[in-house]
Design goal:
Layout (H helix, E strand, L loop, with lengths): L1 E5 L4 H9 L4 E5 L9 H9 L6 E6 L4 H11 L3 E4 L5 H6 L3 E6 L4 H7 L6 E4 L9 H10 L5 E4 L4 H11 L3 E4 L12 H17 L9
Helix pairs in contact: 2-3, 7-8
Length: 209
Amino acid sequence: MKIKICGITSARDADAALSEGVDLLGFRFLRGPRRADPRFVREIVRRLPQGAEAVGVFRNQPLEEVRSILAESDVPIAQLDGSEPPEFAAALGVRVIKTFTELTRASLQSLARYDSFAYLVDEPRGRALRPADLDWAVCAKKFGRVLVTAPGTPDALHEMIHRIRPWGVDDGTCAGPKPDSKDPVKIRALVHAVRLADHDTQKIRVTVR
């Protein structure tokens, strides 16, 4: 089961995640104070160990801007967190993770129109994931790989993995002493919780409806 840590802003945080065996490092290229520098990200990408990859996170940005950042940073995967249509994703020329926060019948139908590397089931704004959201994620699996945002407690994480058996788990918290830093202890705890839940539920078969 893949583990993605999002919001990496320093080489220290990248190294902390990689030392725990994290598979995907997320770099936010959204406009704002926490935006990652593509040149910094390129240096991280060039020394990633085998099996680890970088993901650039975007939201409703112009196509050429996204293309330019991907080229400058050498990031091979684009995560689209906004309302980008399937045509936008296809035009990027890289693997795409499409994020969904509107977990409805209509959004499930729209998901089928994307030719994505994976789909991220994120928490709807203002609330945590609910049982019905987990059912949505199970249904989404028939269209491809599904990443799910990690809930806030180990028990909730275990239940989520038990119910969905996702391709991967995404976490953007693991906050350190500063808002834009990561806590190595929290990264280690998250990785341990995911690996334990993965091991405990490997024999479970989730029916995709």
